[in-house]
Design a protein that fits this description.
Layout (H helix, E strand, L loop, with lengths): L4 E3 L12 H15 L4 E5 L5 H15 L3 H5 L13 E3 L16 E5 L17 H26 L22 E7 L14 E4 L5 E6 L5 E4 L5 E3 L6 E6 L1 H6 L9 E3 L11 E8 L6 E2 L11 E2 H13 L10
Parallel strand pairs: 1-2
Antiparallel strand pairs: 2-10, 3-4, 4-5, 5-12, 6-11, 7-10, 7-12, 8-9, 8-11, 13-14
Helix pairs in contact: 1-4, 2-4
Length: 320
């Protein structure tokens, strides 16, 4: 397989005593993956498949609600918690050269936000399940950041101390539950896909996906390769700020979700992504002191990238 699978058992959630030898092997494997394709499957992370299934189950109930009900939870570009809430299909356009993406999303970035959660009686557990999964992903992401720092010969907390405020309005880290609806009754525009070619904005991303398939990752050969679901694993990738931070030692890779084949146009697809960002007030400079990239504000970089994705949705006022 072009995207390696690495056993994270030595540092899975709940495991704090790590033999140096096992940690050394794991960090080297992860560095090779992050400096190659930029993606790695982690198995034995401590997040169980049943947890992922529960998030997807309650999320699907939300996405199948009437649109007027979901609109009550819509994200509001004029609010401080800009990114929180429901995003309807075709609002995002991650590849500006394509029409809007054929997907919906529900975003959570602030655990103490005034987000309007759905009040529908059919999914009373929606907020509890997503809040809980956010905290689980945060814990795992911090461990991934620690291992990443060690793989580069840095202090274990080098990246973690720049991500202290995840889950507050001082950090843009976002849990997104995504739904790609069936397309058999949809008029698909020319060149339109489920999710356009893009790279992620922040530090790292954790991705959990169902078995529908469709995700493709740009290989160093210049060709896109399939990144299928491997049950029980987390697909982790480097994002743009981390590539800058490490002076291109670790690479942020373009990826996309194309349309399903004709015989599967009547099927939906789901995924859950945890997009990890440094705290808003952090200035990201090359960790090797090389000045290969000029220092950049974590907040401003994210705002600039999000503006491109949403600019056709009248969301020019990005209030992160």
């Amino acid at each position: 397989m072009d995207i390696p699978v690495v056993n994270f058992n030595a540092y899975k959630l709940g495991e704090d005593q790590i033999p140096d030898e096992r940690l050394s092997v794991m960090t080297e494997e992860i560095k090779q993956a992050f400096s190659g394709t930029g993606f790695v499957y982690l198995e034995n992370t401590g997040i169980e498949q049943q947890e992922v299934n529960r998030v997807m189950d309650v999320s699907k109930k939300f996405f199948l609600l009437p649109e007027d009900t979901k609109k009550l939870c819509a994200r509001n570009s004029d609010h401080e918690n800009f990114n929180d809430g429901w995003v309807s299909s075709e609002i995002e356009r991650l590849n500006p050269l394509r029409p809007g993406d054929l997907k919906e999303a529900f975003n959570i970035s602030h655990l103490d936000s005034v987000l309007k959660w759905p009040s529908d009686a059919s999914i009373p557990e929606f907020q509890e399940v997503l809040d809980s999964f956010f905290r689980r992903c945060k814990a795992l992401a911090l461990r991934v950041l620690e291992v990443t720092a060690l793989s580069l010969g840095l202090q274990r907390d080098f990246f973690v101390k720049k991500h202290k405020l995840i889950g507050t309005n001082k950090n843009c880290t976002t849990l997104r539950t995504l739904y790609y609806p069936p397309l058999h009754n949809v008029t698909v525009k020319p060149n339109q896909v489920r999710c356009g070619e893009h790279s992620d904005y922040g530090s790292v991303t954790l991705l959990f996906q169902d078995e529908s398939g469709g995700l493709e990752v740009m290989h160093r050969s210049g060709q896109y390769i399939s990144a299928p679901c491997i049950p029980g694993t987390v697909l982790v990738n480097i994002a743009d700020l981390m590539q800058r931070w490490t002076s291109d030692v670790l690479v942020s890779t373009s990826h996309r979700v194309l349309l399903p084949p004709d015989d599967k146009m009547n099927t939906s697809r789901q995924s859950v992504a945890f997009f990890v960002h440094p705290d808003k007030d952090e200035i990201i400079s090359c960790c090797d002191g090389s000045n290969k990239y000029p220092p950049v504000s974590a907040l401003q970089y994210t705002k600039d990238r999000a503006y491109i994705a949403y600019k056709d949705a009248n969301n020019s006022n990005l209030a992160f």
